[in-house]
Structure formats: structure tokens, C-alpha cells
Specification:
4-stranded mixed β-sheet; 7 strands; 155 residues; alpha+beta; 28% helix; 3-stranded antiparallel β-sheet
Length: 155
Amino acid sequence: MKRFVLFALALSALVRPVLADDFAVEHLRPQGLFASPMFSQVTTVIEGKLIFVSGQVSWDDKGKVMFPGDLRAQTRQTFENMKIALAAAGASIDNVLKFTIYVVNLDREKWKIVGEERAKYINPEKAPASTMVGVPALVLEDLLIEIEAVAVIPD
């Protein structure tokens, strides 16, 4: 029994949870993995209403692509569209557990641009899990970025 208690204490020291709100969401940054202020390595949900947001892009409410050729402006508009989508479900960006970001012809410079714009929307204390993927193209030729999300709010 003593050995189990020591193991449990050692294991708990490896994971530093940060509670998101009054309901049970944890943003984990385990020791031994990169501790980025921009994303959590693991996000868990014990209770709440899950929200899945389709990939958002930089188009207006008529489907016209905004800011062709400008990744920075498209990233900003995509996050603004994400805010609208989340609000429709009663959520905000602080409620996002996981972002998946698709960038056309991703390279280091584009990664930096997306990261700079993303930082304007993300609370480092509630940084969601995140993945950025380079893709050859999106559904429309002028689109440079698409972002999908999973969020949770209290029941």
C-alpha cells in the first residue's frame, strides 16, 4: 500500500492541472513535455456540454472570401468568425479545449504569423490543446487558413 501511495504522489507531481472554471475542465502541462503558454499538452473534461465547431475560414456571411492573399488578416477574421460560432452555442474562446488549424503551404514564417494573431485571442491560463497542420489547399483557392474547435460549457 505504501508503494502505491508513493507512486500516486509521484504521478501527481508530473501533471500540473489548471482548472478552467468552476466546472471540471483541466488544462494539463505534464513535466517532461514542452510547457508552451500558447497551448496545453492535454485538456480533460469531467462534466459539461461539448461543442464541436466546423472549420471556420475568413469569409463573410454571404460566403465571400475576405482578405485574399493576406494570411494575417485571414487569421484574424477566422478567429472573429470562430467567436461568432462559439457564441451561438453559448461559449467563448476561453471555453475551447482543442483547436486544429490548417494552413496552406505552412512554413516557419506562416507559423509565426498565425501564432502572433492567435495569441491575441488565447488566455494563456486557459490555453487549449492545439495542432497546426500544413495543407496544399483548402476548399476555395483564396483561403489560406481554416480553424476548427472543440469547446465545453457547464451543463
